[in-house]
Every structure is written in C-alpha cells, then in structure tokens.
Amino acid sequence: MRALIADDEPLLRHHLSKLLGELSTNIEVVASVKDGIEAVEKIKQLTPDVVFLDIRMPGLDGLEVATAINQLDVLPHIVFVTAYDHYAIEAFEKGAIDYLVKPIDETRLQKTCERLENQFEQSLNRDDLIQLIAKTQVKRETPLTWLKAAKGEDIHLIHVDDVDYFKAEDKYVTVVTQGNEYIIRTPLKNLSKSLCSDTFWQIHRSIIVKVASINRVSRDITGKMVVEMSNDNRKLPVSRNANALFKQM
Questions:
Q1: Integer CA distances (angstroms), 47 to 4, 42, 52, in order
Q2: Bridge partner residues of 183 (DSSP)
Q3: For 146-246, CATH number?
Q4: Of 56, 49, 59, the residue nearest 4 (C-alpha)
Q5: CB contact at 8 A, 100 and 141
Q6: Which DSSP state fits 144?
Q7: pLDDT digit string (tens) for 183-204?
Q8: Is the N or C terminus of the chain more exposed, i.e. has fewer CB atoms within 10 Å?
Q9: 117-150 per-position pLDDT tens digit
Q10: What is the pTM of this model?
Q11: Top-level class of domain 2-135
Q12: Domain residue spans in the chain?
C-alpha cells in the first residue's frame, strides 16, 4: 500500500514515516511533501493508496487538499493528522477514513495501519470517530495565537507562526522572529503551557523553539547536542533531558 505524507514540519514527517515503517510491513511511504499545493501535485502524479494529511499547512490546508482531489478518477484514502481535534467532524465529512491527533500515539496509529491493511472494512462512522477522540486524546486548551511584545517603547502584535524561538533572559523572555527580537514578561514556564506542544518544543530550561524553524541537529566539540536555526544559523543548546525529542532522527 503506497502512502504519501503531507505536513509542513520536516521532523514530524520523518517521525510519522519512521513509525509507519516500524508498525507495518505493508505500507510504503512513496512521497513526503511540505505543503498542500505540492500534496495535490504529488497525489495526481503518484496516485497513492492512502494520504496522511496535516490540516494546517501553507498553500492549501488539508481540508482544501481533500476537496481539490475529490474529482480524481481514483481517490486515495485519507487519514487526517493534526494538533487540533476540533476539526474532526469536518475532516470526517471530507471523506477521512481516520483521524489522528498529534502527538501521534503509536497504539492509535497501529489501529489505523490495521484498518488500512484490512482494506478499510472497519472504517469509522461519525459516532465512532467522536468516541475515539474522547477516549484516546487529552483535552487541550486553544493554543496561543497572538503575542503582545515590546520593542523599545512600542508594543507589537506578533503571530506565533512568525516566531522562531523564545529565550528566557534575566527578568524577561526574548521573542526571536526572522530579523527581529522582542520582549515579553510572561515566564517561559507559563508560556510553554499556552503553546501548541506539537509545534513548539522546549529544548532547554531557557529555550523553546518552533520545530519548523530548525535546520538541523548536531553535536558541538564537547559532544553536547545543539540545534541550528534556519533563519539566522544560530546554534541553541539542547539539555540532556530534551535529547529524547530527537531520538527518532
């Protein structure tokens, strides 16, 4: 069974592909793409049997991708993968065979693989879908979307999608975006509870990074793990406790 993964975060694409390889010998990932437009192109080109679609992606989101491919002669089965469980019903109405909430639980993904391998004989109905989400996922508060941050004497509104990382300083937190730095006074501990844990990872007691802004992970001359950011090439330390975040790489 040929599968395509569409997600705008490269580490998560890698993680899902690796899990699928470990959990099923009958599912082969033939393509991994970073946005909805590329997903539609590759689906038309490769005609995969199943597509794992992130809902929130640039270009076209996962629901728009499902609509765009609805006129194909041969439709792939769709498994939506997202950090936001409130999309569940709309995803199901778009033809989803299953729905996974990030961070992906291996046991739950195993059930998805079994359903795919059994040619979807046990496909979910609306009530099944709601019950599965209620039983297997922890209820989440709506993630933080906007920040009110200071730069000099001015206050700026910053969308969290524009943030590369947060770094705790002495009495404040520095918010780093592409080409700019701002200041907020919310403690990093409180901030971490308001951010989507799938999008932002705390790699150090004083640093939270956006996963999509990581260019690569390496070790310095002392053997300690560091992440190199895409936009400014800064290298940020990874604490020993956070090393496990990158074990799947």
A1: 9, 8, 13
A2: 150, 174
A3: 2.40.50.1020
A4: 49
A5: no
A6: P
A7: 999 889 888 888 887 789 999 9
A8: C
A9: 876 544 445 555 555 555 444 444 567 889 999 9
A10: 0.52
A11: alpha beta
A12: 2-135, 146-246
